[in-house]
Structure formats: C-alpha cells, structure tokens
User: Fold this.
Amino acid sequence: MTSMLDFLTRGARLSVDQVQHGQFTKTKQSGEGIDFTWPCTNSGNGDGTAFIRVTEAGLLVWSGAPFTVQPNQTVPLNLKETIDLPLGLHNLIAEAQEGFPPTGSKLIAADTLALTVVSNPILTPVGLPTIAGVLGPTLVTVLEGTTFVITWPCQNSGGGNGLARLRTVNSPLTIPSGTSSGLVTIPGFSTVTLLTAITASQPPFLVKTSTITLTMRDDNDVVLGTHLFVLVII
Assistant:
C-alpha cells in the first residue's frame, strides 16, 4: 500500500518569539534573535518532512532545518535566526513547507510578518560599581594621597554602538570636586567595563568626609545609573 502524507496546521498558528498571532508587526534590533515556531500535524500514514522558511518579495531570507513528522504526530517546526537584514521595513512571508530546504515541495501554510529593523543603542549599568576593590560599597576609607579606581560595567542590549562614561561629584566640596572619564564606545550586544579614578588629596582645613555621587551617563548626558558612597580621607 502506498504511504500517504497529509500535513495540516489547522488550529495551530505560527508563533514569532513565542507570541501567537495571525498577522505580525514587529520592531527588532539589528543583530537580535528572532524565533519562529509552527506546529505541524501529519494526518497521513507515512513519515514526512517539513520545515519553516522565510521569504521577501519571492527571495529566500532564512530557511530552517527539516523536521521529521511521523503519522498522527504533531511536531513544532522551528527556525531561529539572527537578524542581519538592512535597516528599515521588511514585508516577510513565513511558510511551512513540506519536503527539504531551501525550496520544499509543497506549501502547507503561510503567514505574514512586517518586520522593522532598527539599530539603536540601549545602555544599562550591570550590577553595582566596584570602588577601591570593593563591590558596591557605601563607605570608602583611604589614606590621603591615595588614588583608587572605580569600575562599572555598561551593557548595550541594542544593535547600534553606544557611548558612555563615569562621573563623580563630591558634596561638600573637596579636592578633587569631581571626576569624569572619557566617553567609551560600547558595541551593540556587548558589555564594556567603564573606569575612572579618584585621588584623595586635600588641605587639612577642608572637610575630609564627603558624599560621592557616582553616575553612569551616555553621550547626551542622560543618567543611566547612580551610586552614592561616603569617602573618608585619613
């Protein structure tokens, strides 16, 4: 008897990034991941193969691995890709195809995705700063004339390069009254540790205890994170 295949996706819709919808509109960062999942049922009596592919204006964009679907079995077809498309709007068509990639032999189902690709930096501090070798201290005691280092990782979860720096301001006025590191480039989807240093030096008649406000700022001087600590010079 000849084996018959009958692939169905009826009642099971495409999910993009684990969100199920009939027609998708998404904005994603260049270099970000995208995840297609589409349950596929074989209601025939022979083993079959199916996969997901994505096209734009008839041209292949991505093609997933083939999945074997046995009779009376439902298999979630899956395609995970990193977005490497040009910036702007892309009208994509996701297809569940019978057969083997990249062309397949029979269209099982199709859905649309309006994908806008952007490349913006998204900068955030990671954890607490390390000050004079201590993670996130609220009190730092140093000898007069000592130079101590402040580091704070900055994460860029966006696709474009970002710029960030560390700045300190003292209250009440001490010497130095504050510091500011140079702007550092944080490439897209990476983490870079920012660094600055303070030399604890002041004449005896000035206050030797001060509150230091440490901030992480981007190139537009937007504050990304703040940490306060008390500096005691002995």
User: Anything to note?
Assistant: The radius of gyration is 28 Å.
